[in-house]
Amino acid sequence: MAGAITIQSEKSFLRKVRQLNWGLMILICLVACIGFAALYSAAGGNFSPWASKQLIRFCVGAVIMIAIALTDIRFWYRLSWPCYIAGLVLLIAVEIMGHIGMGAQRWIDLGFMQLQPSEVMKIAVVMVLARYFHSATLEDMRSIRFLIVPCLIILTPVALVLLQPDLGTSLMIVMAGGAMFFIAGASLWIFGIAFAAAAASVPVTWHFLHDYQKQRVLTFLDPESDPLGSGYHITQSKIALGSGGMEGKGFLQGTQSHLNFLPEKQTDFIFTLWAEEWGLFGGLVLLGLFGLIFLYGLWIASRSRHHYGRYLALGLSVNFSLYVFINIAMVMGLIPVVGAPLPLVSYGGTAMLAVLVGFGLIMSCNVYRDSKVTRV
Amino acid sequence: MKKNQDSAKIFTRRSFVIGALQVSCLAVLGGRLAWLQVSQGARYKTLSDKNRINIKMLAPSRGQIVDRFGVPLAVNNQNFRVLIIPEQADDIPKSLRALQNFIEIEEEQIQKVLKQVSKTPKFVPVEIKDDLSWEDVARIEVNLPDLPGLSIGVGEIRAYPYGISTAHIVGYVSAVSKTEVHQDPVLTLPGFKIGKTGVEKRFDLDMRGKSGNAEVEVNVIGREVRELKRDASMTGKRVALTIDGELQRFSQNRLGQEKSASAVIMDAHTGAVYSLASSPSFDPNIFTKGLSAAMWEELLADPGHPLTNKAIAGQYPPGSTFKMVTAMAALEAGLITSHQTSFCPGHYEYGTDRFHCWKRGGHGTVNLIDALTQSCDVYFYEISTKVGIDKIAAMARKLGLGEKLDFDLKEERPGLIPDKGWKMGRFGEVWRPGETIVASIGQGYIQTTPLQLAVMTARLINGGYAVKPWMTGYVGDQLKVDPKWPKMDFNKWHLDLITKGMNRVVNHEKGTAHGSKIEESHMQMGGKTGTAQVRRITMKQRAEGVLNADLPWKSRHHALFVGYAPIHKPRYVCSVVVEHGGGGSSSAAPLARELLVEAQKRDPAATPLQVEKRA
User: Fold this and answer.
1) Is B320 one of the annotated active-site residues of the chain?
2) Which region among B97-106, B242-251, B469-478 has the lowest average model confidence (pLDDT)?
């Protein structure tokens, strides 16, 4: 049933702007400001080299976010598959570049920034799945045959990302995809089978893991066994967090980070720096802000009148929360070190841009929640 | 339509589940954070401090060693070093070359520095040269702007102002050896030095002081960021000796005129040692800077044994200086009187053996005073056969011979006073009477140290008080010795007889040391000469009249003298041993004369020891 997307009600530009989620934007800005403060501290009380650059990136990203939010959702609906295909091509491109001697890379240098295809893929998978499930009926969701395609949609990029190798991102794509299966109404027993299959594949996966990845897992299981080796990061991170105590050591006073005991303090371990200086209070504030952002995403999803918007907003929101959980759980020693940044806070251009693009799409779901999205 | 509603219902329900999951994940993270920061906070706080705080030991200053007047014998001098801090130098080789324009540095040292720089972190200073002169320091300081990365550091180095004169007493410090390191953590400090000999060793712990601590904050590569806390170190205690530095220098210089000699000047009543000299000596200042192997070999090979303190560790037959012991043993045993005489024909027959007097032709008829004055051997041969070795040995020990005297220096040796029991134990043989005859004039098995001879002399002329020698007055504010010595049960009349004999040795025209008589009446000395055979003179040599001076140096007799002054009110006793010096009267007595005159001129006994005043 091929047809055009019909427009139910045209909105004026001003109305659209008013429809933007200013509350969500304030929350995002607050988290980003915590990031600037932490980066300012990480540089020993200097805007350079991190905080100033991060601020510029955020501003650029915020403009892009708003632009995306104001773009008609149907445009994104139509762009789902092209985005996904482009993501796949990019993934294959980095893979091939790695093979023809440019070294194992996860990004493509665009000159002004480094594009990580896996970041593109995290969003594209959600877009494509949202589109695929958009017109699905409950009966469709119960049929295995219908679900083969979305399974392939998830597993193809996961396989490519695993080759990079980037276990963390692979797991994130799988989990975000799984969440979309779940909300679209897939039967619970399908998840049972998936879990069983995943559990059964653990020994196989272990076999294919690189040595450094195995080491990370082993170290995670007993970080103190090798405090100066690979357990060093986690041990020092826990010391930094713990020594921060209830009130923290004070802004710019974090000894662990300023004396460089804490590695990667401006990227992966930025949460540690923040919580060392601001204590439990600061840590909980940041967690709380993240929590509000998650719920905001769910609220937007629930307001959408069309499936595409619901699935897209929820999938992207889950995606964002996975970033947060993985990073913070890692720095607290709850999961192995996977090398994932804390969204909006860690220093780094690609992740910042990817997250803001994601929020742009979520907001677009809100602005165009009443649009009638019909299957092409 | 219904289906759509179902789908929406499922969506709503399941998105609640997702939201709940997200919130519970956040709760888990929050809980974990609270657990780390609150329950485990104290533990991690400690770990974090352990990370960032280094305890740095601060080396204490070593206590001084001073003489009885407070004149320093061992001090800590500032030692200037030029260092390079690699991270502050743009071009390290260039800076080093530039430095060569101002001070002399060997090419080899430059290479060593460059190698060291490549091995250590960039902020660790590397020493280029130490022990710089003031001129060098000034030249570098002025030109520092042209020497990027260089700086001047100040350390302490032990110095001995009296150099070779006090080397044997004061000793020296040098680097801690591997076996010593475990004793005290302060020993692990780079450049820390400990006493190896002499007073430096004996009171090492007292002088070492207490190390201080500084808590410094360090970053992950160990660079010091700032100092958090400082407990200053405590300087070690000062050691004040009874030695008179200038008298010591005089004595050492005088002994230096001989090939190998030693001398002790001591207080007859208190036992305080004013000078303890042994020659040849060595310069302890070289030891503190690290001695080259060649120099060490040279010191070891020197036949004069410069490293040995012969005044306390040199063991010599006392020769005729022992005759007072034999005489006292006979007097106290009631076997002779002052009037009793013997006839000396120049030799003494005992059984089939013949024992010679040093004077061919003999001394004729002599009483005790004459025998001491002229050092007649035959007189003592004769009385010794009556007294027997055991009584002589007992008297010798009573007078301080044959045993260590608890002197302050560990290098002290006991000497040897033989008796019947000793010989049986040592050789499993009975004592032969002929051996008593040899022992009566201080030959044979008998071995004594110059220090013991000085003590013997003191006990004879101080009224029979059992003085012991000591050299350490105050360690810090604590007086080490209370010089109140017990009076021994000698008959005063007997002691006076001996003293009279010793007086005559010098001041009677027939005395063996008459040539060394002190003309100034208030300084006159008494004493006793001794000439100790190193080897037996054969009958053939005696017949041929071989003179001692014709023998090779190593075979010549030792020359000894024990003396005291002034005779009217004895204060200073002195013993002198000139190794292979020929005769006691010809080489030892003149030396002792000079020492006793100098001692009386300086009169160190008139100045009491001074306690350390701490700020």
Assistant:
1) yes
2) B97-106
CA atoms of A325 and B543, how far apart (whole Å): 114
Q: Is A247 on the interface with B (CB under 8 A)?
A: no
pLDDT tens for residues A196-224? 988 888 888 788 777 777 776 776 666 56
The whole-angstrom distance between A336's CA and the closest CA on chain B is 15
What is the b/e burial string over B452-488, where b = at least 16 CB atoms within 10 angstroms of the residue's CB? bbbbbbbbbbbbbbbbbbbbbbbbbeeebbeeebeee
Peptide bond into A49 cis (omega under 30): yes
| A window 163-182, beta carbon within 8 A of B | 179, 182
Count of structural domains, chain B:
2
* B15 vs A139, A275, A301: nearest CB: A301
What's the longest Cα–Cα distance across chain B?
A: 157
ipTM entry:
0.90
Residues B316 and B390 both lie in one domain:
yes
CATH of the domain at B161: 3.90.1310.10
Is pLDDT larger for residue B220 or for residue A369? A369
Q: Which residues of B touch A (CB under 8 A)?
A: 3, 6-7, 10-12, 14-15, 17-19, 22-23, 25-26, 28-30, 32-34, 36-38, 40-41, 43-45, 47-49, 51-52, 217-221, 225
Put simply, whether A47 touches B (Cβ < 8 Å) is no
- How does residue B181 score in pLDDT terms, banded at 50, 70 and 90? low
**CA gap B14, B328 in Å, rounded:** 120
Domain edge (last residue) among B208, B241, B274: B241
Tokens encoding B310: 């012969």
Please name every residue paired with A176 in a beta bridge, in sequence order, or none if there are none. Answer: none
Read off the pLDDT of residues A255-282 as tens digits, 9 standing for 90 and up.
888 888 888 888 889 999 999 999 999 9
**Identity of the residue in A245, A283, A284 whose CB atom sits nearest the CB atom of B45:** A245
The pair phi, psi for residue B102, each rounded to 5°, is -105, -35
β-sheet bridge partners, residue B353: B350
The answer on pLDDT for A101 being more than 80 is: no
B307, pLDDT greater than 70: yes
Two structure tokens written together for B200: 């430096």
Residue B302 lies in a domain: no
Question: Across the interface, which of A137, A241, A318 has its CB nearest the CB of B33?
Answer: A241
Q: Which domain holds residue B234?
A: 54-241
Residue B11, in any domain of the structure: no
- Cα distances from A29 to residues A36, A325, B12, B76, in angstroms, run 10, 19, 29, 65
Q: If you search the block for the tokens 């000078």, which residue do you land on?
A: B275
Query: Please, are residues A274 and A283 in contact by the beta-carbon 8 Å criterion?
Result: yes
pTM: 0.67
The CATH number of the domain holding residue B559 is: 3.40.710.10
**Joined tokens for residue A352:** 């910042």
* Residue in B211, B260, B278, B320 annotated catalytic: B320
Q: Are B461 and B248 in contact (CB under 8 A)?
A: no
Question: DSSP letters of A87-123?
Answer: HHHHHHHHHHHIIIII-S-S-EE-SSSEE-HHHHHHH
